[in-house]
Design goal:
The chain is globular, with a radius of gyration of 26 Å. An 8-stranded mixed β-sheet has the order 1-2-5-3-6-11-9-10, sandwiched between helices. Helix 3 crosses helix 8 and helix 6 packs across helix 8. It has 4 domains: 286 residues, Zn peptidases (Aminopeptidase, 3-Layer(aba) Sandwich); 90 residues; 103 residues, no CATH class; 95 residues, Immunoglobulin-like. The termini are far apart. The chain is built from 10 helices and 36 strands. It has 617 residues and is α+β, with helices and mostly antiparallel strands. Bound molecules: zinc ion. Zinc ion binds next to loops. This is Putative deacylase.
């Protein structure tokens, strides 16, 4: 079957020019802004949702459905934030039209690393798949990625490597240690049943046929991961190896080269390679014409709105901020609509204060207790604007000898806590320590939590902390007489200041009921009995509310294997059963589940135990 992809490649290839580095950088930035701000249509059929919503590491997942049956394939980009082509290719793929089967696309697996345009933040996410780690946000991402991978019959990982892979040593850029322009497999044949090399060999000719520059042709690269003397033993920890070894599905990494300057060319070729491999798996699709997409692009200079002020990105005037004025920004403050953000049109967008470059203010609010220089607006790691900040108002001074007041954000709400008091929290809550009212350069240490492994200076003020005691060093927890609660201390360790502290009590999430709304308007209170089954009339239900001891938005519901955002609906088909499950939104750890069984007509004469008529709110 001919290549169905309608991407036009000719003019990129025939007149390829290697641009000087400086030009490259400008062009790259411009292209990224272009790519970032493409005005795009949402996929025709399928679903989109965000796992880890409201955290610093949101994971956007797209599921495309074809009309006809076929395999499920997962494609992922952006696991390492400096591999740009990978996430642009994956994003492009979200606009494909699928003839058959199902495509699970995660374009940007590691958003914090994309914001910083660096390979990793705490640890290399692509080295966290050999077991279930639980130390960093990267491990939560790995957990969710494994969950989606479990639904796939094949996996393609999009990367960007250095140089040009060559099985023999040619020079420093072309040799067996380079990864660029290759399709990587862990072994030619896995357990005598998955013929990875065959898949690749059957696409290479067609893939390379229009590529005239010899270096830029793709090569098959087997890392021979399982060989005892493999020079690539670290691949045992990678996601492709996990897919192959633990899930027994064919898995490939498509690497384009960091040493090819034209991002658009790389994206178009990586997309072709992906489409060709998908065909090998029996999944047929049409991808959008890239030229058309670029034509639709609008370079939008961001305008940042804070309160009543608007500041443009070209020669920005200083933004006047008041001391102690909460900064809670949304994508709309950047002139982006919700629909654009949801469609991924803007890529990973962020606003960062110069003194806390790791916290995206679009996801987590802040109360500045100390002045900072500037606010930086970034899209997919490209700086779109750096806006100087001018401070007004007064900075309070702490009164000597008075009880200090700790300032923090708990699930996005500002909390002021006097020393000695206790903050009540639920497992999975989000906490950001700001500092101390009137204090200056305070060091706040949540004992047992390590914000930065390489520089463990005890400073936990600033970063996002997920209150999951299983991630904390246990010997720092304050002993309690209750087996199912944890008490931890936040200690003031500012040199020369009094030793004060406050406590955080963390209790498990307890769920009393889920409130469903039936299509006829009835509200049904589903008593939550973990692990049990309940009868329910078949039909469509909206997930309306949770009766629980914590914030609803820190709960992630799933209907079967599909995330079910609050306010969305699911269908219980006649004669079927459906598992309704809940996970922690911030860590993706399972909480509990129930099975819904559709009532047969005879059973439906008696109301289900969990059914109540009318509005209970
Ligand atoms: Zn990579």
């Amino acid at each position: 079957m001919p290549f169905p992809c309608s991407v036009r490649l000719g003019h990129w290839l025939t007149r390829y020019v290697r641009w000087p580095r400086a030009v490259y950088r400008q062009v790259t930035s411009a292209l990224l802004v272009l790519a970032a701000l493409l005005v795009v249509a949402r996929p025709a059929t399928g679903a989109e949702f965000t796992i880890f919503q409201g955290t610093q590491y949101p994971l956007r997942v797209y599921i495309l459905e074809g009309a006809k049956p076929g395999p499920t394939v997962m494609v992922q980009g952006g696991i390492q934030g400096d591999e740009i082509a990978g996430f642009l290719t994956a994003q492009q793929l979200t606009h494909a039209k699928l003839d058959n089967g199902r495509l699970i696309i995660i374009p940007r697996a590691n958003v914090p690393s994309i914001h910083k345009r660096q390979r990793q933040i705490n640890v290399d996410l692509n080295r966290r798949f050999d077991r279930d780690y639980n130390e960093f946000y990267e491990d939560h991402l790995a957990r969710a990625i494994r969950f989606f991978l479990a639904q796939a019959d094949a996996f393609i990982h999009l990367h960007e490597g250095s140089g040009f892979y060559n099985p023999v040593w040619v020079d420093n850029l072309r040799n067996p240690r380079r990864y660029g322009q290759s399709i990587i497999i862990d072994t030619p044949v896995f357990e005598n049943r998955i013929f990875l090399a065959n898949y690749v060999n059957s696409v290479l000719d067609r893939l390379n046929q229009p590529i005239t520059t010899a270096d830029f042709r793709f090569r098959l690269f087997s890392t021979d991961t399982f060989r005892p003397d493999s020079p690539h033993a670290e691949q045992l920890k990678s996601l492709t190896c996990y897919a192959l070894k633990n899930r027994s599905i064919p898995a490939f990494a498509i690497e384009v080269s960091k040493d090819i300057v034209q991002v658009e060319w790389k994206v178009s070729q990586q997309l072709r390679a992906t489409v060709l491999l998908l065909e090998q798996f029996g999944l047929h699709l049409q991808v959008a014409d890239q030229d058309t997409l670029v034509e639709q692009a609008r370079i939008v200079a961001p305008v940042l709105r804070v309160g009543t002020q608007s500041v443009g990105s070209t020669r920005p005037a200083p933004l006047k901020l008041l001391s102690y004025e909460p900064l809670a920004l949304t994508a709309e403050d950047l002139g982006l609509t919700n629909a654009q953000v949801k469609a991924g049109a803007a890529g990973a967008v962020g606003v960062f204060a110069s003194d806390r470059p790791e916290i995206n203010l679009l996801e987590t609010p802040r109360l500045p207790l100390m002045p900072f220089r500037a606010l930086e607006v970034r899209a997919d790691g490209t700086t779109l604007a750096s806006i100087p900040v001018e401070w007004a108002g007064t900075w309070p001074k702490a009164e000597h000898g008075q009880t200090p007041w700790f300032v923090c954000w708990h699930n996005g709400s500002l909390r002021i806590i006097p020393a000695g008091r206790t903050l009540e929290a639920v497992v999975g809550d989000q906490l950001v320590l700001e500092g101390i009212h009137g204090g200056k350069d305070e060091v706040l240490n949540l004992k047992g939590f390590i914000a930065n492994r390489t520089l463990n200076d005890g400073q936990d003020s600033g970063p996002e902390i997920i209150l999951d005691p299983s991630m904390f060093l246990q010997h720092w927890l304050v002993p309690t007489d209750k087996p199912d609660e944890w008490l931890c201390r936040v200690a003031r360790e500012t040199p020369g200041q009094s030793r004060d502290e406050f406590f955080i009590r963390i209790v498990p999430r307890r769920l009393k009921a889920l409130v469903l709304q039936a299509d006829d308007g009835r509200r049904i209170v589903l008593d939550w009995r973990a692990g049990e089954a309940t009868l329910l009339a078949s039909g469509r239900y909206t997930l309306a509310e949770a009766w629980s001891n914590g914030a609803r938005d820190k709960l992630l519901a799933l209907a079967g294997q599909t995330p079910l955002p609050w306010g969305d609906s699911f269908e219980l088909k006649s004669g079927e059963r459906l598992e309704l499950s809940l996970r922690q939104m911030t860590t993706f750890s399972p909480i509990s589940s129930m099975t819904l069984i559709s009532e047969t007509p005879a059973q439906s004469k008696a109301p289900a135990q969990s059914e109540m008529l009318g509005d209970n709110s």
